[in-house]
Specification:
single chain, 323 residues, alpha/beta, 3-stranded mixed sheet, 11 strands, 45% helix
Amino acid sequence: MSDDALRKMGLAVIEAEARAVETLRDRLDDDFVRACHYMLDCEGRIIVIGMGKSGHIGNKIAATLASTGTPAFSVHPGEAAHGDFGMITNKDVVIAASNSGETDEIITLLPLLKRLGVPLIALCGKRHSSLGKAANSYLDISVEVEACPLNLAPTSSTTVTLVMGDALAIALLEARGFTEQDFARSHPAGRLGRRLLLHVNDVMHTGEDIPVVTDSVGLRDALVEMTRKGLGMTAIVDDEHHLCGIFTDGDLRRVLDNGVDVHNTRITDCMTADFTSVQEDILAEEALLTMQEKKINGLLVVNKNNTLVGALNMHDMLRAGVV
């Protein structure tokens, strides 16, 4: 088969599935709104069930719901018939995905769901099927043809099911007032989660790891402290541990260029008194922006009383995944 023929086949699939998705525009009717209200009013969890390819799509729908503020998980209908039905309570809402509406494993559960009294939302391609007739809310995911040239492999139908599931999830996200911070809490290991959840006091060095000297010492002692702590800087504090200044690698280069006597110079004579510090309770992302704007590689951290409580540098940001 030629390269052009392969491209032509791929394009045909994309166009077929795009047409199938386009038909959903006219299907967001009262049943869709009713399904949203069932889910918004749910006191338990949203349970998504489906077999085969519909089951895979159901897993993704449940995952999207859970990550956008609607607690949800998927249950395999075959396993549900052998004990896992106990995962479903009368406070839950069930979404059942089946293009035919006659999937045996799902049909077996319908009397049990009715007896339990849970709202049933059908993602189904046949309104008058067993599933379609049993549903409290019927969401039409029918397609004229599958993208498969044999019209057999679930392709367009699974894509339409996924899009309808996304429509439900995002409608609920908006209705709940779900925020970027809420999303971060569901994704603590992701880039967004680290950016919105990590604070400076989660990243900074504290206690004995803070490079610090008093304002009475000489430059030589400050250099020893910088070398020992390895952050490329040291804080200078007064007797009450209030910050007086900072001495960095950059300051050291300037001192050496000017021929300053390292052994006989006091740290207060060469420290930077006009420096940038940050509060311990701000987001690490904010501290990173400060470092980037000021073109500096390290920051001293203070509390509300301007007392030194920590120190961090760009390497700490990298390790924490903020950068």
